[in-house]
Amino acid sequence: APPYELSFREGAAREATIRSAKEDKVWPFDIEIGDAKELFLVATQGGDDNLGDLVLWQKGVFHFADGSTKPWHVVTKMRGANSGLIYQWGRYNSGPAKLRADAFGATPPGAMKINVPKGAVRLVVEAAVDTERTSAASVQTLVLKEKPPGNKQRFFPGRMIFGGKSGGIGRGENNRELVRALQRANVPSANRTKAGLNAERNALAEWRHTEVKWIGGPWDHQELDRDDPDSPYFMTVKQVRKNAKPKDLEELAKLESRLVALAQVPHQKILHELAAKGIDAREGVIPPGTSSPHLEALRKQEILWESRVKTWFADVANLAWKRDVRESELESIVRLYGEARAAGLSFDTSVKQSLMAILVSPHFLYTQPLNEADHAGPLTDGELASRLSFLIWQSLPDAELLKTAEKKSLSGTEELKRQVRRMLEDGRSRALAEGFAAQAYGFAGFETYGKPDPELYPEFTPELRSAMLREVVSFHHHLFKGQAPLTDLIQADYTFANGELASHYSLAKRWGRNEWKRTSLPRDRGGLPGMALFLTKNSEPLRTSPVLRGTWLLEKFLGRELANPPAGIPAISQDEKDEQGRGVGEQLKAHRANATCAACHDKIDPLGIALERYDPIGRIRKSYRDGSPLVTKAETADGTELDGYTALKTYLSDRQDDVMAHFIRKFVGYSLGRAVEPGDHFLLQRLKKEFPKNDYRFPWLLEQVVLSPQFLNKNKRSKK
Prior knowledge:
Elements: E1 5-8, H1 10-20, E2 26-32, E3 38-45, E4 55-64, E5 69-71, H2 72-75, E6 78-80, E7 86-87, E8 91-92, E9 95-98, E10 104-106, E11 110-115, E12 120-129, E13 138-144, E14 160-162, H3 167-173, E15 185-186, E16 233-235, H4 237-243, H5 246-262, H6 265-276, H7 293-320, H8 327-342, H9 347-359, H10 362-365, E17 377-378, H11 381-392, H12 399-406, H13 413-425, H14 430-441, H15 462-480, H16 488-491, E18 494-497, H17 499-504, E19 517-520, H18 532-537, H19 546-557, H20 584-593, H21 595-609, E20 633-635, E21 641-643, H22 645-654, H23 656-672, H24 681-690, H25 698-706, H26 709-712, E22 713-714
Antiparallel strand pairs: 1-15, 1-16, 2-12, 3-11, 3-13, 4-5, 4-10, 4-12, 6-7, 6-11, 8-9, 13-14, 17-22, 18-19, 20-21
Helix pairs in contact: 1-3, 6-7, 7-8, 7-9, 8-9, 11-12, 13-25, 14-15, 19-21, 20-21
Domain DUF1592: 379-506
InterPro entries: DUF1585 (IPR011478), DUF1588 (IPR013039), DUF1592 (IPR013042), DUF1595 (IPR013043)
Domain DUF1595: 311-367
């Protein structure tokens, strides 16, 4: 948000408020907490009276820096903003009505406050009209970082929620046209803190018709609101531009220009010095030959800035391009800046021109250093730092990594090992777990997956889908930090789940949907193939798919290559039974009777059939939808009898070497940013041989890949 807000008259404010409001009974908030120690929950009437206005603050969840989440009613207390009295969760502040455990009810106008728990970085909460107890509500809600002073009614656009009452709307229609847009600027102390909250954070800030000293006033021509000076209307600049008229926007542009100048201390002092000489420079125009002590100091400062732009651009380009910028490249960047200055653009705008050139370069847009040489050779320490950082963190190197690279010591074996271990322990290494797992096991984009039929499987909600995804990522992150061997991809008897996923898995122990923890699993769960994400992703909308599940196990888990299906083969029915009443098992049996299909389906089908106990969204079931018994028994191509997931896990454990070899192959390719090549053969063979000796621990594997010549060198550019 900009360092100021704008004021509208209340009459016009009410009109703009109604115009921008939506008939929503719920308003969600997603607050970046920053450095706030407490948050204020404000609810006011919607421009009429408060008859029937009942507001619920509910479903609050704090997100913490370590990635954990906790319901707000577990970690904080609801207090009166003025009295400090503690109120009971699940109740109204003015009555005995019982609410959900994580809710608090309030009758506007009023403000409550909550203390921010240690380590919290984000609050997700919603304000809602209590539709069970009223059908006539019109309220405004806001989450603020500072206590809103005063008791005056304030209006703010886009923050109204309704429950059927039309009084606020009716009154707003009779207001006059917007008389003028801008009145003056307001810089509440909340904007001077290190981090603010949302763009509307000072919508209820106190207003007094006094000098705006904190932005360099006094202003000589401040106008009072003749209609209602005590009820101004605060809008963000974005909202002003949306609602104001062309004439108002011209005034806004002038005000912004003045505020930029006034907000800078040297400029304030220059204005006062020139005013003493009878020169009005508030519009930014200074006559040639004008001089003052602070003006000369500013000119010297700009000369100093001019002398440093090359160094600044070099620092930015080195970081953005993940290597040392060449002198010829730097000269081009500086030349672009010089051309902008020569064209009359300001210092700031000219700098931005060059920064944009840096950021649209392929050197920034590609994570791997561009291969511009016609010969192979070792990566520089700077390039190595970048490659390592983007592999493990999917982000730029941190200060320690850059400092080590500057000392030219990063490429040393022991130092490289130390950095790998350090970076894995850092929470940012979760990016490696998510990125690799999504690519290796084929679930990229699952956060928007919507294949299960919503009528048959309404339980597949966005929240459950998100929990499925988080389970897989958390499990991999656990393995990648070396806290368990990679053989747990098959054999694990535990997972990471919240209460919703635990319920989905029918676990005996239950806990809150916002609480994530490691939990033990029964024998019919455990390992990657038994996770709901893979069972769901490899199903059809109306039924499970033994073909998709078996194919996934063979190709993504065991690393076997399958031929493309031949053309002209009838597809399996989309529902659990075809027109002849045959189940999926019978249809697959007919496929295997066809010699053309049998070559692949003899390998695929038995593995998928062993997973038939899990429905299309990964729940355990006892029968098909029509009540017919499940088919979970099958015989593999090599004569192994499978009956359910427990037998399948044994089958996969017997082929553990294949699973690990495939994992190694996929990870080497992922780390190098390319497909595995014949030249990688000896590296792959060595890793496969030595991996069991190192207890199948991922940190060892990562170290070996990072220390390999393939990772430490750049390839020769291919010519086509």
